[in-house]
Amino acid sequence: MRGFEELNPAVLMTYYLCVIGTAMFCMDPVVIGISLAGACALFITLDGKRGARTHLSFFLLFLVMSLINPIWYHNGVTVLFVVNDSPITLEALAYGVCASAMIVSVLYRLRTFTMIISADKLLYVFGRLSPQLSLVLSMALRFVPLIRAQTTKVRSSQKALGIYRGDNIADTLKGEARIFSITATWALENGIITSDSMEARGYGEHRRTSFSVFRFTRGDALFLALCLVPSAVFIAAAATGEMSFTFYPAMSGISLTPLSAAGYASYGFLSLLPCILEWKEDIRWRYLISRI
Amino acid sequence: MEILDIKDLSFTYNEANSPTLKDISLSVNEGQFVVLCGATGSGKSTLLRLLKPQLSPYGKSTGTISFREKPIGECASAADIGFVTQRPEQQIVTDKVWHELAFGLENMGVKQQDTARRTAEMASYFGIEDKFDKSTAELSGGQKQLINLAAVMVTEPKLLILDEPTAQLDPITASEFINTVKKLNRDLSLTVIIAEHRLEEVIPICDNLVIIDKGRIIASGDPREVISRIYGNSGIMLGMPAAARISAYLGERDCALSVREGRELVRRFGNTETLPDNAVSTDNKKTVLEFRDVYFRYERALPDVLKGLSFTVTEGEIFCILGGNGSGKTTALGTAAGILKPYAGNILVFGKKLKEYKNQSLYRECLALMPQDIQTVFLRNTVREEMEDAGADISSLPYDLTPLLDMHPYDLSGGEQQLAALAKVLALKPRLLLLDEPTKGLDAASKDRIRKLMRELAHSGITIVAVTHDVEFAAECADRCALFFRGEIVSTAPPEEFFSANSFYTTAASRITRGHFERAVTAEKAAALCRLNGRRAGM
Q1: Which residue of A153, A197, A201 is in closest CB contact with B376?
Q2: What's the distance, CA A249 to chain centroid?
Q3: Which domain holds residue B8?
Q4: What is the ipTM of this complex?
Q5: Residue A242: what are its φ and ψ, rounded to 5°?
Q6: Contact B362 A193 (CB under 8 A)
Q7: Residue pLDDT, tens place only, B291-318
Q8: Would the pTM of this model clear 0.90, i.e. be above it?
Q9: CATH code of B337's domain
């Protein structure tokens, strides 16, 4: 079994869809708590001790967003104190805390998402939809930095020729406009050579296939099952309404029925799944090393 | 077995009045290594493109081309004929190396598993396994060209066509590329047709040398015979290997091709007489450019590119800086031109520190830099507009630009681009000219023209500092040569001394004459010494 990052990109995308998609529509403090803990744990597992700044900025964001809700909304029956004739209520504060915890947990997830899903993995997933689309995306990814590099080169060449001197703005602007226009010409010129090269290698001769270096293994299938089954249980539990939590006017208690307990447990499992995989690999590796 | 047969082929471009190719007949057997040689504009590229149906130019053609006994138009697949051109960067289509290798197979509709096997096989044959997951933008020019070749080879072509594949590469990567092609030819009996300017390495290994001049084949066959037939054609002989040129100067009936054969040839001559020493002394001349312990790095975390670089260039000389890839040569020129700022040390131009040149005064009648990528000099749609922008007076140039005035700078050949760019640079009336790889991608005739031009400019008092990979060029045009290694200059000497002291980083002529003649670093000098000493008795 491979680590979380090395799973098939399509499986990874499914996981993120499940874990973010389900939690976003469930305003239940327990679910949000589990989600935040899981997201944060994965980030720490992948990033190690370097993420101090991320944690700090997310924490500040969390504080600010938590406080905004009680300042603007005054619903709720439990008044904590009154500021400028506006009551600050416990319910509004609790709602603020839950909402911002949810947002921060999604931010943590997205942070790990960008760490794991590189451009070519995204490309692979969208390439499944159409080989043409995947080729266009791959070419675009190559072309943008190429044009940027060429612009820099032209600019420094012109500087050393001292032709468009930086003495006045009009001259500088004129120079920049010319550099832009010649880079466009250059890109078109390049495009012709590239399209020749594509045709020379048989582009358009047959129906294209789309090759990728990513494989779908039994480990991927297992992970996919471990991701889809708990999601289904969780959705079922949420759909019955047994996990609904209301904040206004007064907070309802957390109802613990067999079904909601199953829902919490499966979300907890889903949320921690990548960490479990990583930890398992880590322990196995240490065990292997100790045997050597 | 005959793989390609061209009969009476003529070709005229749609807008042209006269044919580009006339009565071309050529037959190529399977497994042959064919070298096509001729000046820029002789029709080489047109011929090569006609051999690849997907790239055939538009125009009127007569005659026949058969590929494996069928007309080439009916040859069904692009996979059968591989084609690599001279621009490494532009031929790459995708952003990842593995995708680039798979591209041709994807086009053929090959299944995932077969593609995985064939790309893996190709990557290990070319020794690029470690680059497999890399982004194509990270590769050097030589690696890019190797990827282009590998990407063509995955579809298992029967015929490989290469149109000046090493023109944009430095000599070391160029020779690696040629060796890979040679290996493919030998291992797989792959038929290769290659058009090249750098003939030193391909001619000794080729089976069939074809010389094209003005759209006609003027000679073809065994390289030794072909070269001895064109001894009189000085334009084409310029690009031939040093051994062949020495043979031509001496009028040898059996033409030598490799360095080894060249050595056998010169040993038949005596070695008692020497040429007069005509090295110019650099004493008592004004210093134009001086580097004093210059240190430079691109980013704080990166290592030094220039490490205590110190050298001086005196007025009116041509100073050539040689050195391997990534040794910091181009960076040194960048710092001299004030584009890059060193973090320690001083650079003095005409005795004044660079910092003291305010408001771009450095670039006014003082210093100019010709960049390596010559296209970046041009900004306008015609050469005429370029010249007007720069305020260039084309009548004062030592060459004639008028036929090129209405063309787009990008449509010019490499040599013409150099001339047009130089005109733009000279309009600034520089007294110090910095040239970065002035011979990159040029054929022998254009190189010769640039060399003569540099001499004329130096004569008129312009000091020239040129960075180059081209040892033959440096040997012919420099007053002094310097070897750049790991961010500093490790030796400086006049070319005769410089190249006779080096054993690998030296010219073919020097390797031929080593131990026999002293200080003969160019083919002309070697031949002159042979003539001076005369043939030994009984040889």
Answers
A1: A153
A2: 34
A3: 2-221
A4: 0.83
A5: -75, -15
A6: no
A7: 999 999 998 888 899 999 999 999 989 9
A8: no
A9: 3.40.50.300
